[in-house]
Amino acid sequence: MRAGRLGGMGLAAFLLLASASRGQDSLNVTKVGEIRHWDGALDVASVGNYALLSTGASGLQILDVSNPFAPVQISYVETPGSANRMFYSENVAYVADGLGGLAIIDISDPGHPFIIGQCPTYSAAWDVAVNGDYAYVAKGNHGLGVVDISQPTSPQEIYYIDTPGWAFALAIQGNYLYLTDGSYGIRIYSILDPDLPVEIANCGTTGECLDIAVLDDYALTADGAALTIIDISNSINPVIEVSLSLPGPSEVLAIDSNLVFLSGQDMSALCIVDISQISNPILLATLPLPETGNGIAIADTLVYMACGNSGFSLVNVASPTAPFQIASLDSVSSINAVVVHENLAYAGGNPGGMHIYDISDPTSPVEIGALSINADICALELSENTLYAASPDSGLSILDVSDPTNPQEIGSWYSWWMSDIEVIRDTAFVTSGTAGSISVLDVSNPANPIQIATIAGLAEHVVAFEIDQNYLYVVSWHDNQWWEPSIHLDIFDIQNLQMPLWLGRTYPYLHYMPAVDVFLANGYVYVLGLDGISAVDVADPENPVQVAFLLIENLCNEGAAAGDHICVASTNVLHVFDIANPSTINLSGFYNNSSPALGIAAQDSLIYVAQDYVFAIYDISAALPVNPWEATPSQPSSFVLHPPHPNPFNSSTVASFELRAPSHVSLRVYDTAGRLVRTLVDGWRLEGKHQAVFDGSGLPSGIYLARLTVEDPLGAGDFQQTQKLILLK
């Protein structure tokens, strides 16, 4: 057997794709549906029947809590940065948006919130409080910022004050602003002149001071593993009144009358403290939580909690000594991988989220099942009613999905740094932590997978593989070995699953390491790198030959085949390429996104993308070849509507049709919603060839349908035929 070669590719097959993000947002690709998940829940505010939830990189979520036993997400706003803490006032949410600065969001219609203004703060914004025409922003190691919000559509930072510690939270009462400064305790500012705050005092505390609330003459602080209460009756001479030890480090607090509610990342509990006697606080109850408590809001006898990676929780505190959780909403997950079968899509990511969606209506996908597993999922494989999930840190998890509304984990197998999986005939191939190898497992009993073979001799990092009938294609790479190229494509005969037979190898050229994926389309293997894709002819598996390389100016993550096209999920862009001629890979469509496309699956003309915190569905039919639609005529040989020419077109095209007998004819153009756009012909026409011009100069780019209807004069039934038109401006 001979190793592969870089045969006959030449310069003509080295192609460059300019960045798809230049000039326009999409081409021939349309987003038709999506489901959004969250980053960790970091803060919460109560607004009537709604709860506002800041969720880091996934922005601001709005939940309907009119039924506290069944909270429902109804809308969201993507923010430029990472939504941390917030301040709510008069239908406006002011969000400390990390490196995005201050975001001002109109929520007068909770179902349709939108950003009305945004202001950079030149360092990460952690918390915000508003007083009149000014917003005060805690900016971490850059202290306190002042933002003029008198014109909410164009807020401007006008002043800042540095602090020695870490400015994390703040509160305002009257003409004073109180700022937590980490290990330096609190700082007090006079804001009599609101655009020029002046520090008038500070007070050290014993712990890491991370949150603050003010009640009359006292400032209450989440001070490490303590509630520290500071007497601020003399604003220039604050004094610690008392400190109450807590069962763990506290980071957030909220006050309601004589009760204080505290929680924290490492506390994993809600503490309730009675402060009716301010100098003698009493710990009334401690309610364990599934994870960190990052934010607290109070609504009558309910406490809303932002619980990090556990989402949103509601706690009944009608009896402060006996609180209990009544509901939760866990939509926290970063989606990394997706696999599709018929009307169901399976998506997984981290932290350990497995989601099942009904995609029978792609414009409105619905989550019907979910399961939390102890794994960060990076690859999925479905075999009948069994779903296999690969994780780099937890190995292989095996799920029974025969009931998609109630998936169950039934088995597992551990290997370090597992990155891909393929299953064929009760046998699973998984990447192994052992350098340069693949483990072969017998999964005939999914509850008890057994290793039966090892494929060795590959490059150090095995990243992906693909199975096609009796062949296994493996992509691996290694670091800086001067005696051979870095990227390997190995081909194995797997007719005997327990004894795979190596057939051949080639070294695909990639502009920049490493390789990230491999997949097949139309008899060719495509090797995806971080910034490019190589096409390899594997007709002779003992002598694979690279025929093309395309450079892509976006970091690529995963690819999938769709007929004569391939789709590539990359950082912020979904690409569609025409591979009808594999030696000349051509861009036929793209869609720019605000979040990275990490995993991808194709089914017919729809593409399903794992997009960080979003599961999205895209229609790529406009990027596919334009073929005549099947006619449904009563006499198929009697009349013909030819494909329009040119197509795609800008801004006019010609529709041609033939009549074998004189007939009454209508030729009308509709949009994809079925609305009539133009009537090109409506009347009697003689037999023979006819043409009609469709002028789309006043119409938006998109897909249109030309429908020819002929009334058969012989009474055999009407003839109809439709052709697809693509208007591209």
CATH superfamily of the largest domain: YVTN repeat-like/Quinoprotein amine dehydrogenase
Low-confidence stretches: 1-16, 18-23, 627-636
* Widest sheet: strand ordering: 1-50-49-48-47
CATH topology of the largest domain: Methylamine Dehydrogenase, Chain H
Give Rg in angstroms. Answer: 31 Å
Mean pLDDT: 86
Which features would summarize this protein structure in a list?
single chain, 729 residues, mainly beta, Methylamine Dehydrogenase, Chain H, Immunoglobulin-like, 3 domains, five-stranded mixed β-sheet, five-stranded antiparallel β-sheet, globular, disordered N terminus
Task: Give an overview in words.
- The radius of gyration is 31 Å and the shape is globular.
- A hairpin with a 5-residue loop joins strand 24 (259-263) and strand 25.
- It contains no helices and 64 strands.
- It folds into three domains: 13-26 and 333-623, YVTN repeat-like/Quinoprotein amine dehydrogenase (Methylamine Dehydrogenase, Chain H, 7 Propeller), CATH 2.130.10; 38-329, YVTN repeat-like/Quinoprotein amine dehydrogenase (Methylamine Dehydrogenase, Chain H), CATH 2.130.10.10; 639-727, Immunoglobulin-like (Sandwich), CATH 2.60.40.
- 0% of the residues lie in helices and 55% in strands.
- It has 729 residues and is mainly beta.
- It starts with 13 loop residues before the first strand and ends with a strand.
